[in-house]
Design brief:
alpha+beta, 21 strands
């Protein structure tokens, strides 16, 4: 019993945190749309649900605090209390406090109790400043009902058949009929069928006359009076019919004939006579003129509408699965992928046709299982975007600036593990944009800009990667200030000529900051180096671009998943390596004597571009180990890969082909190995290292000056 209760409490906490996230999102929306009643209602429902559930599971401190917040939001929704920045700010602080209180069931620490009482006092003072009126109390009751589930005091969804026949002259008083239909459809799930059979030929048509009428199938939680209210100003000039549609029996789809009988368009006897024919019932009824073709089409729309409503009510929207269970499932799929590779290798070694057939079928099934499992772990990145609105709001107040966050591509999906690791880098980038990029309102006004700055957060897919961009319309990067700081810190020499993009990349160096004073937001040089380190740990890259006076953009290139990737398997002597296939541009051949004659000048022309390359045999010192080095082939392969620093060539003995790669982390002793991000197990049990192309490119070019050689060649 105790275990069961603990499980319910854990579920409550999980759902409560989701509701608090929704509450924060709605409160931030209210700041820009304070008169939107739907947003206020949504915020109220969230806090009302938290209060009721907390009381049910014994979280008395949470329930009591939520009650005071609910009272304030109730006053806001009734209009008794104006929705101001101060009110929203207090409500946001209340949401933060509830998150902390959720962790304590038996008692609240003394320090938190003092903070609790301080906030509760402020909520009570707000409530006293605007005593609730009768309408407010009525609103409270209706909102509580709206927050309740169907069947527990709230209105259950019902389906109505609505016929709207406007008068022929309705257009002459300026009525826009389609606007009424759109407003009606906004009340719930709707299907609209227009009747156009009365429209005359063009030659005899009156341009200002309305010949059409509409039937609407609407499934909604509002009552009949709310539907009539939409047509209140045109009801005298129209024929309006609102008829509740009987629900079909459990598990049944309502028949076309039954719908026509319900509508009074067909008698039961005529239906029985038509059912004896071999033709479709609709065709028979139209042929014997029992009903018209538009009436049959309208009934078919009703049939399809009821079917969709029934399917939606039967299908669960989602199911909660613990994160560790998903991780375990992905691990098992990874083991199956490795096992499938072993089976394929065994079938080739034995040259058994039957086993090869089984192996191919097994490979197809594993591929489908892998894709489905990975899709379960994919989440819309918008779940991360929402929290940054709060970051921008709080920093605007702290820094005395005005800014808003604009998000695009929130539906873009990423592996949940990647999303979890993206939070900190994005916070650092936004803080940097707010502190260094967005100017104060008076400076923006003098520069001819809107006083409210904009930080744009966007995401989109690009092959096996997701591109996330954070851009602002601030003053951009100061090239001279960055150069001076780089010289001061010894990153470059005073006489060194460095490209603009390379100079801006110095912002990612540890301890680098152009701030003149240390503040609570910046100045210690900790932030952008964290961004680069975290993004590179994900196998991604970060780049800066800027336009002086117009703003800065940080582009993050992130792999879709960290568990299973497609790779290019290569061999060097007796060792195997995997290069992420998404990074590979192409492969070219080179003779060993041509490679040897180049000396230190390791540059090759690829698609009219000079590309530096490195021998992986030399980089990993394989030539020093006779057993692993093997015999160097006369013709070697250069794999051209794209990296953050630009293209780079990787010289290998043999390109074997593409390979489903299950990523295994390296042990503690090998975690800092340059140019390697992980390992995988091949079909014969051999371990292959997975190359980190970005890091490999950076180490090679920085250590050997290849970038300078390429640039001057």
């Amino acid at each position: 019993m105790a275990q069961s209760l603990d499980k319910f409490k854990a579920t409550f906490r999980e759902e409560a945190f989701e509701l608090l996230t929704q509450l924060e999102e709605k409160l931030l929306e209210l700041e820009s749309q304070p008169l939107d009643g739907e947003i206020v209602n949504a915020a109220f429902r969230a806090i009302h649900t938290i209060k009721g559930s907390a009381a049910m599971f014994g979280f008395d401190a949470v329930s009591g605090f939520a009650h005071e917040m609910e009272t304030v939001l109730d006053l806001c929704r009734s209009g008794a209390l104006a929705i101001t920045k101060d009110v929203i700010g207090l409500a946001l602080k209340g949401g933060d406090q509830l998150r902390q209180l959720m962790e304590f069931e038996d008692g609240v620490p003394a320090e938190m109790e003092r903070e609790n009482e301080s906030l509760l006092l402020k909520f009570r003072e707000l409530s006293k400043s605007a005593p609730p009126s009768d309408s407010a109390r009525e609103g409270h009751a209706s909102a509580a009902q709206a927050g309740a589930p169907a069947g527990a005091g709230g209105l259950e969804a019902r389906t109505y058949r609505i016929s709207f026949r406007p008068s022929r002259d309705i257009f002459k008083n300026g009525t826009k009929v389609l606007n009424l239909i759109e407003e009606l459809a906004g009340l719930g799930q709707a299907d609209v069928f227009p009747h156009v059979e009365d429209i005359p030929p063009l030659g005899s048509m009156e341009p200002e006359a309305c010949y059409a009428w509409w039937e609407v199938l609407l499934t909604t939680t509002v009552d009949e009076n709310a539907i009539r209210d939409i047509f209140i100003f045109v009801e005298d000039q129209s024929e309006l019919g609102i008829v509740p549609v009987p629900e079909p029996d459990e598990g049944e789809t309502k028949r076309l004939g039954a719908i026509l009988v319900d509508r009074g368009l067909l008698s039961a006897g005529a239906l029985r006579a038509a059912l004896g024919s071999q033709k479709k019932i609709g065709e028979v009824l139209v042929e014997n003129q029992s009903v018209t073709k538009p009436q049959v089409e309208s009934a078919l729309v009703e049939q399809e509408h009821l079917k969709k409503v029934h399917e939606r009510s039967e299908t669960a929207a989602s199911i909660r699965v613990a994160s560790d269970k998903l991780d375990a499932l992905v691990d098992l799929v990874g083991e199956l992928v490795t096992l499938q590779a072993r089976l394929t290798r065994t079938s080739l070694d034995l040259n058994d046709g039957g086993l090869s057939s089984v192996s191919e079928q097994f490979e197809r099934l594993i591929s489908q299982l892998r894709d489905n499992t990975m899709s379960i772990r994919m989440l819309p990145i918008g779940s991360t975007f929402n929290k940054f609105r709060r970051v921008v709001r709080d920093l605007s107040i702290e820094l005395g600036k005005e800014a808003e966050l604009v998000a695009e591509g929130a539906e873009t999906e990423l592996d949940k593990t990647v999303i979890e690791k993206l939070s900190d880098p994005l916070v650092h980038i936004i803080r940097n944009s707010m502190d260094h990029g967005i100017e104060r309102p008076e400076f923006r006004a003098r520069a001819g800009k809107p006083t409210v700055g904009v930080i744009k957060l966007s995401a989109r897919h690009s092959g096996a990667y997701v591109l996330i961009q954070v851009s602002d319309d601030g003053k951009g990067l100061d090239r001279d200030a960055i150069r001076s700081k780089a010289i001061e810190r010894g990153l470059i020499s005073p006489t060194q000529d460095i490209g603009e993009q390379e100079l801006y990349q110095l912002v990612f160096e540890p301890g680098f900051s152009t701030a003149k004073a240390v503040t609570t937001v910046s100045g210690r040089g900790v932030g952008m180096d964290v961004v680069k380190r975290e993004i590179e740990s994900l196998g991604g890259s970060a780049q800066l671009s800027t336009l002086p006076g117009a703003g800065m953009t940080v582009t993050l290139k992130i792999p879709l998943t960290l568990a299973i990737i497609k790779g290019l398997l290569v061999r060097i002597g007796g060792e195997f390596f995997v290069i992420p296939l998404a990074s590979v541009d192409g492969c070219i051949e080179i003779r060993r004597e041509d490679l040897s004659s180049m000396g230190q000048r390791r540059i090759i022309l690829y698609r009219e571009e000079l590309v530096p390359f490195v021998s992986l045999r030399e980089f990993f010192s394989l030539e020093e180990d006779g057993e692993k080095a093997g015999t160097e082939p006369d013709i070697e392969q250069i794999v051209i890969a794209s990296a953050q620093e630009g293209r780079i060539g990787l010289v290998v003995d043999q390109v074997i082909g593409d390979y489903q790669t299950v990523i295994k982390p390296l042990g503690r002793l090998y975690r800092d190995t340059e140019g390697v991000s992980g390992a995988t197990i091949l079909g014969d049990g051999t371990v292959a290292l997975i190359l980190d192309v970005n890091r490999l490119s950076f180490v090679v070019q920085k250590g050997n000056g290849l970038k300078a050689v390429a640039g001057g060649a």
